[in-house]
Amino acid sequence: LPSVTGNDGDYFVFGKGKAVIYINNREVRDPSELDKLNSADIRDVEIITNPGARYDASVKAVIRINTIRKVGDGFGFDLRSSYYQSENVDLVEQLNLNYRKNGWDIFGTMAYYQNEFLQKSNVLQKTYVDTLWLQNNDFITENHTKTIEAIAGINYEISPKHYIGMQYTFSFIPRAYIDSYTNSKVYFGNMSNFYDELNSVEKKTYLNKPSHLFNAYYNGKLEKLNIDFNTDFYTDNQSSRSTITEKSLKYSDKTVTSENDVDNRLVAAKLILSYPVFGGSLSLGSEYTDTYRRDKYVNRENTLLSLNTTIEERNASIFAEYSYALPFGQLGAGLRYENVKSYYFVDDKPIDEQSRRYSQWFPNASFATNIGDISLQLSYTAKTKRPTYRELSNNTFYMNRLTMQRGNPLLKPTLMQDITLIGSWKFMQAMISYKEERNAILHWTEQDKDTPKISIVSFRNFDRLPRLTALLAVAPSFGIWTPQTSVGFQKQWITID
Question: What's this model's pTM, rounded to 2 decimal places?
Answer without folding.
Answer: 0.83
